[in-house]
Amino acid sequence: MPDTPQTDLLEAEFTKLFAAHDCVAAKSDILLSADPFLETAGEDLRRRMFITSGPAGEEMCLRPEFTIPVCLQHLRSGSDLPRRYGYLGPVFRHRKNASDEFLQAGVEHLGRTEQPGVEDGDIMAIALEAAALPNPDSKLTLKLGDPSLFQQLLVSLQLPDSLQQRLIRAYGRGLSEKDLNRILLPNAADTGKLPDELQEFAGDEAKLTDALTTMMQSHGLSRSAGRSPQAIAQRYMQTYGTQDYGLSDKNRARAKTIILAFSSLKGAADSMADVFKKFESEHNVSFGERLIAYAERLSHLHDKRSKAVSVDLQFAANFARPLDYYTGFVFEVFIDDATQPVAGGGRYDRLMEILGAPHPVPAVGFSLWLDRLPKWQEARS
Fold this sequence. Notes:
Elements: H1 5-20, E1 24-25, E2 31-33, H2 35-40, H3 43-47, E3 51-53, E4 59-62, H4 67-77, E5 83-92, E6 101-110, H5 116-132, E7 139-145, H6 147-156, H7 161-172, H8 177-184, H9 205-218, H10 229-239, H11 249-263, E8 266-268, H12 272-283, H13 290-304, E9 310-316, E10 330-335, E11 343-347, H14 351-354, E12 363-369, H15 374-380
């Protein structure tokens, strides 16, 4: 559907907003190498990408999102840090009951200017301002999650590192009691679910991933043809693979009880600090400095956000994302009673290093779906 004068005006307002927050305009080609997305994106995004071949047979894709292209642009430019990028442009994904081409706007803050809580609060405030820009009378809900609290909980439980990593991956995909039983109970892996040549790798996710990669390559299968080797291996280990981590029955039961109790925590974000402290006392665990970071993040959000916008701040402990590069808090913004978020973001301190930076780079940002904004929908119609 073509743009209208009203949508052009809204685009100009977003561009003006980002400039007011010291954003440099990000530039990105629409046709990009598929490799960075296939290697770092979650399985859901990989399934919805538009894949094609380049002149030399390399895998290319239509831009499915902006965060990875913005990070790659920064690495290629050699620009100094910190740096804040703003963007607005089309992205392409297979979607049900919606156009496969749609506009995204957003901000990516790379590098550190102050404490993480300051930058986190600033990014959430900009996201709320952007969501309210065409809908100033709407009520916004900001849903907040913090996987770093879960990570610290596992450390406090003194679980083996390999078990912690497996639980963290499962947590990002939605950790159920059934998942916990499969991961914690010391049963043998169900090797009957694997081809004969892969059965020796049934108990080791990394080796199983490597073996699946080799098998797919030998059969001429693209990584974009269905699920990736890593996703297949992770799903197998989550569903069938179990290991004996040397936990006693008592410690295994305690870990399960505490993890399930934590996953059920939710409520008004400003009231959760007391809930976390009570949880620490009841279960003899510690969230350590993560609680300080949580409080600082909310404090700076209140300092930065526009008081003219009505916002309900909610926390859900089971809210996470299935992406390895997210390292801290995540959030989504909803308008009125909508079931789909209009914006989402979080902290991703590992992504720049995964993409080729010589060391980890603190980073936080958000993306906003313009076609989910009521005012945008009215302007397009």
